[in-house]
Amino acid sequence: MFHGLPSEDPIDHLDEFDRLCDLTKINGVSEDAIKLRLFPMSLADKAHQWEKSLPHGTITTWDECKKAFLAKFFSTGRTAKLRGEISSFIQRNNETFAEAWERFKGYTSQCPHHGFNNESLLSTLYRGCLPRYREMLDTASNGNFLNQDVDDGWQLVENIAYQRSYGESMKYRLELDPHSIELTLNAKRHACTQLEVGQTDPSPIPCQACQLCLRTNLSKGPGRGGDKT
Length: 229
Prior knowledge:
Elements: H1 10-21, H2 31-38, H3 45-53, H4 62-73, H5 76-87, H6 97-110, H7 118-128, H8 131-139, H9 150-175, H10 178-196
Helix pairs in contact: 5-6, 6-9
Pfam families: Retrotrans_gag
Protein name: Retrotransposon gag domain-containing protein
Domain Retrotransposon gag: 37-128
């Protein structure tokens, strides 16, 4: 139950209510109708009084109900902060495209009553991306990402984020973790030393950064191919 107390989070209440309603299916009754009928039963005290005071016919869809609920119980300060995060969104230099996309979605989901339309959100995301990703989006859109249909634009963003998430995260881990690279180099140097002093079967060394492999001429190693005669 949501009482309308300052300590309660209206977003959490809506999320929990949505999950419960997903378990309720009635043939011939729309999802919106089910939620509009059940939502008042999830409210108590101040929140219940607010719902009862709404003029009849003011709210006809679940989306309208959520926006009215959040406008009443979501603090104006929090709303302003999240609207600012959305409108001034900029991808961080050490952030992958997938990470930036998830962060942007997080802002919009935390403030569903932000008031920005889908076209404006898509433009904000695009302009906030690093140049190399804007170029990638343009290339995949025949030259101009913002000229395409909005729904197609969102789908392209999802596809690129999904395709690049694994490769980019691995790349950044290697670039930003000099300690692991140093450990790899030390292990390889140790292996080379073992070969030079005659240890014929050094333990295999896992390679974490193949491009850093040391070039070593093993043909002159004394232990290669058996004992020296």
